Amino acid sequence: MLLEVRNLSVSYGKVAAVNDVSLHVEEGSVATVLGANGAGKTSLLNAIMGVTRAQGTLRFAGQTISGWSSARRVSAGMALVPEGRRILLSLTIEENLLMGAYQRRDREIASDLGRMYELFPNLARRRNDPGSVLSGGEQQMLAIGRALMARPRLLLMDEPSLGLSPLFVREVFNLIHSLNSSGLAILLVEQNTRMALQAAQWGYVLKLGRLALEADTEELMKSDDLARAYLGDNTTAKHRLHA
Length: 243
Description:
With 243 residues, this protein is α/β, with parallel strands linked by helices. It has helices at residues 41-49, 70-76, 93-99, 109-119, 121-125, 136-148, 166-181, 193-199, 217-222, 225-231, 235-242; strands at 3-12, 15-25, 30-34, 55-60, 63-64, 78-81, 154-158, 185-189, 202-207, 210-216. The protein has a six-stranded mixed sheet, sandwiched between helices. Strands 2-1-4-5 form a four-stranded antiparallel sheet, with helices on one face. The longest helix is centred in the last third of the chain and has 16 residues, at 166-181.
């Protein structure tokens, strides 16, 4: 087991964003977390990454990491692609990529940077330009490349297709498949339910901060339980979700 989350809870004052959620990610697998807006998905990822304080137990690669800082979790092999990309627009593309390797002290950073440019040729052509010149899709690729520069064993991705054109959505999911095929484990939060289920092997559904459903993704795609977990008994809305 690469990541194991047990009874995780996150609160903001008196408001419970995540309530007693448990999940796991196997080595080399893709797991997806689904749910409507406000279900607690981003809070869950931020808690796993150590960005948000949480109660519960987290284990990564055989170690209990519940009290670790975000920086220590990155060093251990976790990286987050945050919702909204959060690249530094005033820095160059290359400087943004190197931010992902800020904790590394090895001699392979330059070769990894070269691999990012092979993976994202649009970024290579504009490496000395500021991040502000990039389109939304290119900024998303930059955010992913920055996370990969940390050499993670587990990549946490928060809404990577949000706001992108259909072309870039396909590129993002092709990239997810390619990264996973190379052995990288991924925990994916995504509003595009159909594509997320096609990319993952296991799925979790959050509703109002609680785990409403978990199953093999093939089972989830065939089941009305997914639509009910999202939308209750609204038949028309359920049809749209599966369409």
